[in-house]
Amino acid sequence: MRHCEFPAHRGRMEYVCLGCGATYGIGELHYTCPTCGGVFLLRDTAFDALKQTSGAAWREVFDARMGAKRSALRGVFRFYELMAPVLEEGDIVYLGEGQTPIVESAPALSARLGGQRMAFKNDGQNPSASFKDRGMACAFSFLRQLIRTTGADDILAVCASTGDTSAAAALYAAYVGGGVKSAVILPQGKVTPQQLAQPLGSGAVVLEVPGVFDDCMKVVEHLADNYQVALLNSKNAWRILGQESYAFEVAQWYDWDLAGKCVFVPIGNAGNITAIMGGFLKLYDLGVIATLPRVFGVQSHHADPVWRYYDQPEGAREFRPVAVTPSVAQAAMIGNPVSFPRVRHFAERYLAAGGPGAFQVVQVTEQAIVEGMLDANRHGHIACTQGGECFAGLVRARELGLIDRDELAILDATAHMLKFIGFQDMYYENAFPPEYGITPRPEYANRPQLVIDPARKAALSAADYTAEAAQAVVERLGLKAR
Ligand SMILES: *Cc1c(COP(=O)(O)O)cnc(C)c1O
Ligand SMILES: [Zn+2]
Q1: I need a labelling partner for 241 at 20 to 30 A (CA). Which of 13, 234, 335, 448 fits?
Q2: How far apart are CA 65 and CA 322, in angstroms?
Q3: To test ligand 1's pocket by mutation, which of 39, 162, 240, 391 has the most ligand atoms within 8 angstroms of CB?
Q4: Per-residue pLDDT tens for 302-353?
Q5: From residue 248, how far is each of 91, 97, 263, 267 by CA, in Å?
Q6: Alpha-carbon gap, residue 29 to 143, rounded angstroms
Q7: Paired strand residues for 205
Q8: Are the C-beta atoms of residues 111 and 103 closer than 8 Å to each other?
Q9: Which of 139, 191, 134 is nearest to 161 (CA)?
Q10: Assign residue 437 a region: left if phi > 0, alpha if psi is -120 to 50, beta otherwise?
């Protein structure tokens, strides 16, 4: 079928430093600028050549690829030309990431917000159950290409993580195998048991550091600056590229019409929101979309440096890292986001192209986050606490009059609820340590109910046991006989 072959187009990519503007070739791995220490973005210097193809023709290409049967085009590389058009097909790693569904919110949930139009994009339906897989697919594909072209055969992939980055990195490293080994560095006791089990199961070396994510990040930065390791944190600009696919998919889902729509994104290390803004801007520059959707970043009052920055009057803004306190949105519990300069860069461009209000950040409480998750999931969604944070962000934006109910809000459910299920348990069991500042409402609690005592079971014949257990169920449920 036309457009379903692997694309022949190749771009020319380079690292561009957001601090000093220096550029570096992609022949080696770079994380921070050797000149000024700034963060990089990857730029395709041949991007303007894509403008010779009309927006309509690009839409046709990407839509045709929805039927592609080649693994390399089934996932995030459906949008190859916009993402990393330097990779060869054989190097592309596909583990089933991307193309996650957008699920319209249940009417009863919308009704709670006066009929607000809203939907969740379930990025927890990625292979390691979070959006991080999008970035890893791109970063590991590049790594494979680098290994093939340089002959490097012994690569240690390392990352610091609030849990999901390490799960994703370990998964992709395990798949790629060969000379690629992975080590993940986690804040001790600050990732969920499910997230800890993931890299362990993938066979990664798991190292714990007392402290919070920001402490782990410093250790990993030291390693990347002084030792031969491949860093897989979002400092790695290849990850940002892969995560742009989220924006491309949102646009395609709505048939490339983003008028009257906005997206809500939780901000932790700020890589995801960077990628989403960058992705929408690429589509806009190429005329693939005619309108930019508005972007709302969401932060907890326990980890809100980006919100604080934008809350200051324009012209007097100063970025200051914050000391975080425990948050149920644990994957976003970061006081000094690595990608903050990238956010500032794209926010400026986004506001210039989309007008006032095109990019905003809202702050929400821990109570609102956890109840946002519970409310969403009681209406058939599968939101993690960060997805709950997006929902809370939408509620807050409504309260502040930043959005009206006819604007369609797409909420990023960044991971699967099961990864963060311990927070649901803590809510139901009223077991939150006081630092969270969460007071569970007893009417929300839901627990299993034992219908018959095990000792009673031992005393009954099998037939009598079934009858008595069934009778107990009938009474609990108030069932009527047929
Ligand atoms: C990593 C992560 C975030 C935060 O994303 P950033 O790119 O660090 O801002 C939010 N939710 C989940 C589930 C994550 O894994
Ligand atoms: Zn620089």
Answers
A1: 335
A2: 44
A3: 162
A4: 999 999 999 999 999 999 999 999 999 999 999 999 999 999 999 999 999 9
A5: 22, 14, 13, 19
A6: 9
A7: 183
A8: no
A9: 191
A10: left
